[in-house]
Design a protein that fits this description.
The structure is a homodimer of 201-residue chains. Chain A is an alpha/beta fold and 201 residues long. Helices cover 41% and strands 12% of the residues of chain A. Chain A has a four-stranded parallel sheet. The model of chain A has no long low-confidence stretch (mean pLDDT 93).
Chain lengths: 201, 201
């Protein structure tokens, strides 16, 4: 804004809201006004919840999930099959797979993918912790659910190499046509994979 | 999510973030994860700023602007022409006009528009306060900058009626083609207004 139109505390709130993904400078102003209008119903509770989460947030030392307890909700869930571990790049992927609710499994968050150009090597990821976890003998199957990118696939291969000779089943997500997807819009790589992995009707 | 995957504090943060305009359930999760990743750079400061704004926010008793001081930053700005008052529906409109930085004026926030169907009458808006403000004799021109909707125009007419006989100039925003707009996409009402209010080149 050209001139100050409101108090510095509100300007600061707008500036910080604009850094939240999904909000920009303009929607941050709209969000701030909405929060102020809903001061008691939304702004107060949100401010409290954020402070609470800020104080209590922890990274699970077993799987890398974000939680307020360590070990996390998933690692301590007795109804989950802790011998089936899905390896993901980050916590967002873990939460996305949980929304699908396909498997009642445990997870391992790598914290990224190998990327020599960005200076990210095996020591920057939780690969050693994953190998240690496998060595305890409690894990029977690892599902490598990294993104289908070059870095993701390189990471998957590196992990497989590290587990060489251990008594564990390692699988990866199937490639194929997304459910609801139209062939016309898919790239050749996906179509080749979908054809090769065709299943009988 | 089908099963709990994280602590209740973080679930609550996600739920409340999803109520912020511009964020939905999915982007609220992404926002929460981003806040947690940037715990010290963003989550802490944002939580503090929100609490600070929550504690200090005030509605200016003169103009209705949102601020942390009453009278607000605009009403106490000695470099502004306090005799020129722009009447707007809500604070978002005030801030939008300030971004345009066209006039160095004061404002009056109505708090909505007359809308008999929604049960909003003159007493629900700050029209009486506006009339009082004009009666002090310090205001020389009112620019009615309400939205170009039926309710906005009805409100403009009502205000003009209330000011009948007082020594004040009342104007409204010009109707016309938006700058950068294409004629092809404009409605007939706008084109008629733009033609009638044509200016010489």
């Amino acid at each position: 804004m050209a001139k100050r139109v409101t108090g510095p505390e509100i300007e600061k709130l707008i500036q910080l809201l604009a850094k939240v993904p999904g909000l920009g400078p303009r929607s941050a102003r709209r969000a701030a006004l909405h929060l102020i209008k809903k001061r008691d119903q939304l702004m107060g509770p949100l401010s409290g919840a954020m402070q609470d989460a800020y104080d209590k947030v922890k990274i699970c030392s077993t799987c890398g999930n974000v939680d307020t307890a360590d070990p996390c909700t998933i690692c301590t869930d007795p109804t989950r099959d802790q011998s089936l571990v899905i390896v993901v790049e980050d916590v967002g992927d873990l939460w996305a797979l949980e929304r699908a609710a396909a498997l009642n499994a445990a997870y391992h968050v790598l914290g990224g993918t190998l990327s020599p150009l960005d200076g990210i090597g095996p020591d920057d990821l939780t690969i050693a912790a994953l190998v240690d976890r496998v060595k305890t003998g409690e894990v029977k199957e690892l599902i490598i659910a990294v993104n289908a990118t070059v870095e993701g696939q390189a990471t998957a291969h590196y992990i497989t190499d590290q587990l060489e000779g251990m008594d564990i089943k390692v699988t990866r997500l199937a490639h194929g046509v997304p459910v609801g997807g139209e062939l016309d819009y898919l790239d050749e790589g996906t179509l080749v994979a979908a054809l090769r992995s065709r299943t009988s009707l």
